[in-house]
Write the structure tokens for this entry.
Amino acid sequence: MKLERGYFNITDLVFGGSLALNDGVLTINKKELEDHLLSEDENNNIESIELEIVRPGENTRIVHVLDTVMAGVKVEGEGEFMPGHGCAPLITGSGKTHLIKNLAIMECAELPWAGKSALLYPRDAIIDMTGPAAGYSPFSETFNLILRMEMVQDSSDIEYDNSVRNAGIRCARRLAELVRDLTPDETEVFDFDAEVDPELPKIAYVTQCQNQGVYSNTFLYGHEVWNIVPTFLNPTEMMDGCVVSGNYVWPCFKVPSWIQANMPAVMELARGHGTKWNFVGVVFDRGHNDSHFLKQRAASLASNIVRRLGADGVLISWEGGGNAATDAMLTLQICENWGIKAVPYTFEFGGIDGREGILLVDDVPEAQYVVSTGSIEKPTIIPAVDRVAGGDCLRLRKETGGEPEPAEVERTLDVITAFYCGANQSGIGRLAGVPY
Amino acid sequence: MSKIRIVHYINQFFAGIGGEEEAHRPVAFEDGPKGPGIGISGNLGEHAEIVRTIWCGDNFINENHSEALGVIEKLIIEAKPDVVLAGPAFNAGRYGIACGLVAKLCKDKLGIPAITGMFPENPAVEIYKQDVYIMPVGSTAAGMRKAIPMLSEKVLKLGIDRTLGNALEDGYIQSGYRYNEYVEKPAASRALNMLLSRLCGGEPITEVPRRVFETVAPAAGLADLKNATIAIVTGGGMVPAGNPDKLKQAFADAFGIYNIEGLNELPAGDYKGIHGGYDSSWVDADPDRVVPLDVLRELESEGKFKKLVNEYFSLCGIGTNVAMSKKLGAEVAEELKRRQVSAAIYTST
């Protein structure tokens, strides 16, 4: 497969008369786009949509963040960007795609909590655009268009989930149409068809997503992957958004759709493909398998693809907590035992000062080389902010009532679970647990 | 800039006094470098000098902590150092302790940065690594030649900056303290670099050290089930509706004790799962799925065992670090002992 990605960088995002991109300024007609998105919500699960703009550097806190998507459009080649969502699930990853690089479309809503499962409810996810928590999320550096949604009462979880996702994707598509026929600011070509020097080391990437039920699911070509058998993906399929996130459970563990289409391991490996190494492909897998037997099974099948690809080495990352760490560590163990060198990256524990010595929930003796994406057991003080977007309150600790609390005030969060992408599981952030 | 002033602590052997037979010698000193300090001085350049060398017999300091340290403290203060170097002690246990004592004295009491060098398996490392910088050196004095340039560099850096960078940058033995920091490259890039290094035959330094599991011996089996008192403990987060103890759904810091007297099962609706790691719908529908009260009551009435404790213990086993788990576990065990429990069934999820 060969994919050309054309990137557009916007210099500002504003509301104005009509939808346009001029000299880098993306102008949105607020009312027109809100009405459009609301009218497209087939089953009327969304009561209202209000668009909000949040720019990098603003003293703003975004709350109730569900998923974040990228505005992309296929210009040439089969399929659509984010295939299987409002379009056929045809294989993407070839031809040409145009993307608005520094724009993030965020679905924000206070989805109902009453009576929900203790795992499967949308926890409040926080993004601070400035201050000590800004580095937890890559979206403190993007122009963010927020779909602040109010939902109707008494729809089902599946309906809410579908409606918010579809609204975000429709919004992204509408904006991406603007750049379909324009000349990108920069382009990158990823050619996986060309012959590769057989001497180059072969490297694969295993990415393990979360999928434990509605509100924690991940979609591959438009369908959740509860029953997935580990499968091969061409790196360019991921770049074209074949993986979409519907994971709203633990904010720090989310890998949003925006990041799925820009997975740092995929991008970096693809950029050196054919010159520095041979990127033999992505193995897409699901963690949180229900028993040791099923974990071994999934790990074996994932490792078997890595081996079949002829990989000398493999990077491994996962989404989700300790349960998923076991699936990943078993995969690492099998790969290492087959002579394939594996390096994972993971969040760690360790207590406030790291002296609570057990850093990983699970590991295996073969995991001798591990990269840290930071500890999730660090208290963070978030300061008072000028503005709150996405909602107007925070709902924390459902298990003790979860009453709405003011979002704009200073508060200390004793662990970082409420910060969107805070565990840095995609490896996109520079946060690390550092030994002294 | 005035020269960085270094005080160097060594033992009687490296001071040239003698070996084991002279280990009883009390504290003595000389201004200027001595023993290994001479080699170190040669590596310091123009910016630093060893102004005083203090030594003491290893037995003397180990057997007379306060007396020896009292003298050493005075001698250090007098010499007005910017930094103190102790050792290196290699794998010598008592010398290691002596170096640790002196370095800790400087850091904690005198506010003077201090550094030492030891073989990583020197028993003193475990005692002092949390308190002082310990550079890893070889096991015997044969490692001196390699140790000198490294120690010279670090003592100079410490003298100027008064602190070292993190353990990966400066190479000292990790103290166990870890903090979140923003580093130069994203995690995925660092992982790729680590992998490439391995593919080229390198042995890169892991960012997350391997954990060491503590082995917990299982308790002996019950000799007499018929006369046993049984308790239920669950990490599955089943609590009375409303979560009266406000237990957390992850990162537990407490447990709840809930009365089940007169109940033959936990009625759905009266009890709720709050565990944040699994879909609790199925245990909410039938709480006995995680607190198996129904079958235990049957077995109790059949006389399979004597008595079920009329309280169950609950918390959410997710994200709780081992230190907290040990603390809570010990507290639960105390409660069980007070109830004269013969055995407990721990259900997890």
